[in-house]
Amino acid sequence: MLKVPKLDKPKILVVNDDANSLFALTSLLAQWAEAEPYEVIAARSGEEALRQVLLHDFAVILLDVNMPGMDGFETAEAIHQRGRSANIPIIFITAFVADELDRLKAYQRGAADFLFTPVIPQVLHAKISVFVALAVKNEELKKQARQLHQRTNDLIASNKRLLQEIEERKVAERQNHAKDEFLAMLGHELRNPLSAISSAASLIGLPGVSHEGAARAKKIIQRQSQHLGRIVDDLLDLSRAMSGKILLNRTPLDLAALIANCLETYRATGRTADYHVSMELEPGWVDGDVTRLEQIFSNLLDNALKYTPPGGSIDIVMEVDGDDIVLTVHDTGVGISAELLPHVFDVFVQGTSTLDRAQGGLGIGLALVRRLAELHGGSVDAESAGAGEGSTFSIRLPRTERITETKPETMETTEQSKPTILLIEDNDDGREMMAMMLSCYGYEVQHAADGLQGIEAALRHKPDVALVDIGLPGIDGYEVARRLRADGATRGIRLIALTGYGLAEDQRRVLEAGFDMHLVKPVDIESLMKAIGSLTNPNSSSAPAA
Fold first, then answer.
1. Rounded Cα gap, residues 418 and 140, in angstroms
2. DSSP β-ladder status, 494-499 and 465-469
3. pTM value > 0.70
4. Of 369, 387, 469, 478, nearest in space to 427 by CA
5. Most confident residue range from 217-231, 337-351, 478-492, 529-543
6. How is residue 209 annotated by DSSP?
7. Residue 243's CB: how many other CB atoms inside 10 A?
8. Mean per-residue pLDDT, 26-37
9. Each residue of 167-176: pLDDT tens digit?
10. Nearest-CA neighbor of 395 among 314, 296, 264, 305?
11. Which residues carry this modification: 4-aspartylphosphate (predicted)?
12. How confident is residue 363, by pLDDT bands cut at 50, 70 and 90?
């Protein structure tokens, strides 16, 4: 409830150059002021009256007509020329009987009434009471208007807050619904490869399985494991991209050559066999991260393949547009509805899902495309005429000048003795499988199940390379690396960190602890052998942390 402020007392200004008349009027008014709410202010001249009008608002002015200097008429005219005091009622007081011309002159100057001296107190009191009452009512109306205005503003502000809360709640509900759908999709996408892996592993253990059947089961396990790895990578990449933790390894590159190589890989694996794919690439160079640019194109192409029925067409065009390079992927697929089009790059957004989940995916590919394009200083745009009309996705990236490529020195590949390996891993199954794989490729492998055992094994066997898991019981991988580097007997061992954490901060901590290289699980055997070779081959320089 608003507090009603106390009203100011109305003020009466008495202007008269004669001290006796001024005293008589102010004294008379002061007597009545004890019973009525008003305040009396006196002025001896027109100039002084104007100064008082500048300082105060008055309910009424009693103004003597005959004054030296500025007479009453001139004073009244000056008062009413000022906007704030233009409506103050003025009662002229004169000792002379005014004729009609004087009255007309007075009213033209804004007079509200005339009083003649000697003033009759009862008449003066009646007139003053009317103007004081009007002033009180006017002040009350002004206060009420201010209160009403304040209440209106409060209601408008409350309404805005309410509308904002309603909108925020709707957004939260949409986000929660999208997250629920995403979790359901994620469960589906994970269960399918896990089911295939479980079935294939069980098949290998059956007594009557043929050699060909076991070989096919192994390929299924490998293929579905790679699929699971891609799902995890997409989730991690999106999290890093949205939090700004992706660090681009920029280098000048020919984007047309990169796209051509990516498309050739798709063709070699048969993923584009059921589609009419055309490619028109104008050479153009950008300053970008090879891996992330491949990811952008792969996600756009995967999206086109996912939403285009077999037999459809996919057109890939790259052209130079001023200082930009524009890559366009157009398909003749299911298209995008007008309602969905503004949200296709939002996280977890997909078209209408069905129970068969034939199109698959988690709804994060296009969101990742947008973020990666923005990290490269570019942008992405989507167009579609509607459902069934196909869609077009355009990537715009800043163009850079062509760089003359220099051929890298060919590394010597002559056969040499395999380095000895120490594997420190607390996961029993993972440790056993990696040790078996390395042994199959001719490596001598020692292994340990925790950090302290790993340090003892390193002192005992003096391996060439130690593969160290970071999340070890007892002491973690960072501490293992620090202790090995601090001991002269183990200081020369090349250290490779194996971890499920791949953020820039994780890489920094790995290098600070003394590791030579950082690999993110799961690591395929070819990549692992390349990493070991890059650290132990005397003909190669020390490899950078991955």
1. 99
2. parallel
3. no
4. 469
5. 478-492
6. -
7. 9
8. 81
9. 989 888 877 8
10. 296
11. 64, 469
12. low
Half-sphere exposure of residue 292: CA atoms within 13 angstroms, side-chain side: 25
- Rounded Cα distance, 21 and 116, in Å: 12
Q: Minimal CA–CA distance to 117: which of 64, 60, 42, 70? A: 64
User: Given the structure tokens 């250290």, which residue do they identify?
Assistant: 495
Find the mean pLDDT for residues 313-332. 94
The alpha carbon dihedral of 329, 333, 335, 341 has a sign of: negative
pLDDT at 222 over 50: yes
Residues of the chain with pLDDT > 70, as a percent, come to 84
Q: Rounded distance, CA 490 to CA 454, Å?
A: 12
pLDDT of residue 392: 94
Task: Indicate if the pLDDT at residue 361 is higher than 60.
Answer: no
Q: How big is the CA angle at 483 (ends 478 and 489), to the nearest 5 degrees?
A: 135
Residue matched to tokens 């494991």: 225
Q: How far apart are CA 308 and CA 310, in angstroms?
A: 7
Structure tokens at 121: 């107190």
Long-range contacts of 242-248 (CB under 8 A, 24+ apart): 242/347, 242/367, 242/371, 245/503, 245/504, 245/505, 246/292, 246/371, 246/372, 246/375, 246/504, 247/504, 248/288, 248/289, 248/292, 248/375, 248/376
Please list the residues that pair with 287 across neighbouring strands.
252
Instruction: Look up residue 28 and give its amino acid.
Output: L
pLDDT band at 453 (very low <50, low <70, confident <90, very high): very high
347-352 long-range contacts (CB < 8 A, ≥24 apart) are 347/178, 347/238, 347/242, 348/178, 348/179, 348/181, 348/182, 349/178, 350/185, 351/307
Q: Provide the pLDDT for residue 543.
A: 40
In the sheet that 324-331 helps form, which strands lie side by side, from edge to edge? Answer: 276-281, 313-321, 324-331, 391-398, 379-383
| Residues constituting the chain | 546
Give which of 427, 433, 435, 469 is closest to 451, Cα–Cα. Answer: 469
Predicted pLDDT at 230: 72
Question: Mean pLDDT across the stretch 24-49?
Answer: 85
Bridge partner list, 42: 14
